[in-house]
Amino acid sequence: ETVFSKRKQMVIVGVLGKSNEAHCNKLVEFGMLNIQPNLEDIAVSDGRVKFYFRTEGDTLFLHFDSTFDNFVMLKLAEEMMSANVSHPSAHFINFNSTIRTRYARVLLFALQVCHVLILVETSVTFDLSYLSLFKSLKIIREKYVLKFLPEMLKNAGVGSFMGKECRLASPRLIFLLSLPETLQKPSKEDIQALEVKLEDFITKTLRNEFIITNNSAMSLFSIPKGKQFVFYTQTKEQCKNTIKDMMMMLSVCFDDPSQTAIISKRNEALMNKLKPYEFIGFPDFKVKLDHSEKRSNSRSILDLVQMLVIETLEPIFDEEFTGVKHRTKCGMTLPTIGHWYEMFQFMYQLFIENPAKSCYNDFEPEYKSYLENFHALVDIEEQLFREVGEQGLELAMLKYNEMLPMHYSSSYHESKYQDALHLLGQYARGPQLKPCVEKLKGYCDSIWISGKQQCEYPSLRGNPCLMGKHKSLDASDHSSGVIYVSSCNCGRIQGHREDPYTIRQANYEFYQIMAKSCSNCNRLEHVQFPVFEPSTSDFRAAEFINKNLSNLMTFESTGRTESDVNNINLYRSARDSPFLSSSERSQNCFTNFSFNTVSYDGPDRTCDGAQAKDRNEELYKKDWALNHKTNTEEMVGIENCNIDKNRTTDSKNQKDEMMFKVSVAEKMTAIALDPEPRFDSVKHPSTTEYLPGMLHAASPAGLLPRFPSWSLVCLGSSSIYTHNTGLPEHVQSGFLSGSNYLLPWDVNVRLEHAQSWAASYEKIRLRKKTNLHSSKSFERNNSFTLKIFIGVEYECLRGHRFIMKSPDSILRSATEIARDSGSNVVFNDMPIYFPCPCRNAINNTAQLMRVHIITPKAPVNVIIDPKVKIFQNNMQSSFTFNTGVAQSIKLTQSSYWILRLPFVYEGDTGPLEPPPEVNPNSAVIHGVLMAGMYGIRENELNEESLLGS
Q: What span, in angstroms and rounded, lies between the C-alpha atoms of 116 and 305?
């Protein structure tokens, strides 16, 4: 109040810049502020201004706290991170932009209200980042401040003394820098030489950037011509000893006259014990030392400031760099301190307080424009980042559009986007990077979605559909563009097949199409496997819950479509139990064997309900009779035995002997004792619901698939195959060289009633032939050896076919075939998938597709019961698929049979994709053809069978 009530004119000196102290003290070198940070009660804040008045001179010091002070900057960083908890690590560019903008506001305000401004630097060099601030503030002052400030000052009734420039003067700028701490203190001459060099550099730089000119009105500030305006201070002189200062304060307290003599003496004695050297603990003014020499050699920034203050108060003020000899005090104003303070308060509100508000709608248009555009003009880095970001975004968009196909997948889209993003990253920087990335992502997605998105519906082999995004009710409408090579059911010809999308395409339709091109398939004898036969047009897929997987089995969960079921309304019959034992499932599966040449008509045929019921009952009766007869009449036992040396040549290679113990008396007794079966208590196969997947061990009883996934055909007589030449190309095409041989399996059998068979066999032979042949050899020994040829065939997606000689090795030559080599594949689980020896690096996994069986010329039948087990989740779960036939399939004598396995396997949860890569040593972990598939059964003793043999 004492200072501001005076009407004396004063020179305003502002101190602004950087500091490292907690209290932002930049006046330490002036010898005015010696208060330590721990004694500071008021926390620092951005934009705070402190006034310091020196009674020795007509000078008022304004100490500005700004964001360039380290502790103000730290406080601002803490506030920004606490305000954004979700992203505490704010981008450095945004933070730097904020502190630069706030500092620029304080700097512009200081240039408006000060005669002299001192910029404090904590380093030894000039901060070149000031150049961009100076240029921005020069533009802002000329474009905005000079438009709104005169009118607002006039309306407020303050600052009339400032004139049209709206400032006290073109302020003089002094740069205060700090020398680094060194062991050797630099001399006064060295410091002065450094100051002169820096002054020349700053002058040249500011003039080149047109920040200062010869016209003071057009300059943001001015620098003295031919006079010092750079001052270096030494850090050691600036740093104060905190402990010493505290002791000085204590000494003043002890020197208080109000204390009693006893207390004073006691304190003085205590201080004498504590002082490390003489005169410590006493104020400096009590120490009588000669400082005249020290003062004469000292350098003080205060002296430089005082010299500028004196020049300011002189009538002639050398403000410009022109060559005019006599200059008046033009543009220089020295108001009274009271009027100046009124103007200061008003301008502080305009330049410091109002910009902190969130809304500027209440202000005048010119002033509002200044507030809104200040940040954009000051933060040139943000403008730079925005421009380079826009350039990089444009190039990235062009990069994405390069050579785009008509339709492409999400992986290709992501690859193109990553390439464009990499290009954008070479340009975009700073806070504009994230918005540019979002724009690029939106642009690339919009291009892909609007007409170029690929369908990508996966096939049963995992290949995506190449067609454009489309809605399809039928999975067969999709196409992956992948073509495979596969053989027909009999293996005679090979053809191209499209990548299947339904089980029907994979396991049935392709082979039906191939049968039209093959000369053998339609005329060969084949086994018709049990399929669903609807009794009405309103049939549907069954809905059931799998006990093992706890999964609701519908056509939706398996990827099936409405066209496959013809009716979406699925239901579950409450009276049908889906969980039966294996024996119950065997009794409830019906088989209608048809050894004829009529082709399969398909599952879409319908018949009258009564006819279907009668036919099912008839099939069931026949099947029950067959089961009953098989269980009581024919008992097959396999045992290892030693064969007589006169009948065999090598006992090591003869592993199995089939013994048939069939007694007529036992047959009659068994048949007589068994009661008549009760057909009403047995579940018939459904004629209204079909199994939506493939038949496997856990499938509900009474449900059959709509089409067969297996095929069993008879090529003809066993003479088709010659073991010396193997399978000829015109009979079986596509086999790799040396791998077209079947493996012999020697089976030793002994018939319990071989003598009666031999007699009947000899009687019929004598009737047909004139030559006599004694059957005494059969009467002497009823044991003999059967030779069966077995071939487990694999086929890769390129059509390469080969035979496996063991579960882990491929047959590559006929020389590798030893006697009884077939035992290796008969009594072992054969892997479903195995690497193909072809050179195809992609999709070289072959699959077990066929089993070749050549039955012997003997009064026995080879029976087969194929079961395929597919493993999932590292063998933790599995599906065991079967043909649906209740009993083992009996093959005719002296014939060449081929069993074709499914191309794709489907469980209750959908198709089971084959492994992309298979290790030969661990191929069985993916799936196996289970051992125990083959067996021997004695033939009916009749004339037809004997003639056929």
A: 8
What is the rounded distance in angstroms from the CA atom of residue 694 to the CA atom of residue 909? 11
Strands 483-487 and 116-120, bridge-based pairing: unpaired
Q: Take residue 93 and report the two structure tokens written for it.
A: 């560019």
Which structure tokens are listed for 747?
Answer: 């089976």
Domain boundaries, the chain: 21-42+67-241+300-313+321-376, 242-297, 380-449, 484-949
Confidence bin at 241 (pLDDT 50/70/90): low
Residue closest to 531 by CA, chosen among 601, 474, 625, 613: 601
For residue 291, the model assigns a pLDDT of 43
pLDDT at 401 over 50: yes
**Burial group, residue 793, by CB count within 10 angstroms (0-12, 13-18, 19+):** buried
CA distance 301 to 715: 114
Query: How many whole angstroms separate alpha carbon 111 and alpha carbon 221?
Result: 7
Print burial letters for 873-907: b (CB count within 10 Å at least 16), e (below 16): eeeeebbebbbbbbbbbbbebebbbbbbbbbbbbb
Residue type (1 letter), 29: E
CA 485/CA 798 separation, integer angstroms: 5
Is this structure's pTM higher than 0.90?
no
How do 636-639 and 910-912 pair as beta strands? Answer: unpaired
Report how far residue 705's alpha carbon sits from residue 593's, in angstroms, rounded to the nearest whole number.
17
Residue 766's pLDDT is what? 61
Query: Of the given ranges (87-91, 136-140, 307-311), which has the lowest mean pLDDT?
Result: 87-91
Helices assigned H by DSSP within 688-794:
754-768, 776-780
Place of tokens 């079961």: 867
Which DSSP state fits 59? Answer: E
The DSSP result for 152-204, as a single string, is HHHHHT--GGGTTTTSSSS-EEEEEEEEPP-SSPPPHHHHHHHHHHHHHHHHH
Q: Among 299, 280, 276, 290, which residue's Cα sits nearest to residue 228?
A: 299
Longest Cα–Cα distance of the chain, Å, equals 161
Stronger pLDDT, 224 or 655, i.e. the higher one = 224
Q: Return mean pLDDT, the chain.
A: 76
Cβ(463)–Cβ(411) under 8 Å?
no
Stretch 470-493: mean pLDDT, rounded? 91
> Using CA atoms, how far apart are residues 695 and 701, in angstroms rounded to an integer?
10
Q: What is the DSSP letter of 545?
A: E
Mean pLDDT of the 122-146 span: 92
Compare 220 and 90 and report the one with higher pLDDT. Answer: 220
What is the torsional sign of CA 433, 436, 441, 447?
Answer: negative
Amino acid residing at 858: A
Phi and psi, residue 877, nearest 5°: -140, 160
Distance in angstroms between the alpha carbons of the first and the last residue of the chain: 134
Q: What is the spatial distance between Cα 850 and Cα 209, in angstroms, rounded to a whole number? A: 88
Q: List C-alpha distances in Å: 4 to 338, 340, 346, 759.
A: 5, 9, 15, 145
pLDDT in tens, 373-396: 999 899 888 888 889 999 999 999
| Mean pLDDT, residues 907-931 | 91
Find tokens 């400082």 and name the residue.
Answer: 291
Does residue 898 contact residue 852 with C-beta atoms inside 8 Å? yes
Going by the DSSP 8-state scheme, the letter that residue 584 receives in this structure is: H
Residue type at 640 in one-letter notation = N
User: Tell me: the pLDDT tens digits for 447-467?
Assistant: 999 989 999 999 998 899 999
- Between CA 467 and CA 476, with CA 473 as vertex, the angle to 5 degrees is 55
Q: Give the pLDDT band of residue 32 (cuts 50, 70, 90).
A: low
Exposure string for 256-270, b = 16+ CB within 10 A, e = fewer: eeeeeeeeeeebeee
Q: How far is CA 459 from each of CA 452, 455, 468, 564, 795, rounded to the nearest angstrom?
A: 20, 11, 15, 16, 19
Task: Return the residue matching tokens 């479903």.
Answer: 832
Ranking 83-92, 284-293, 688-697 by mean pLDDT, the lowest is 284-293
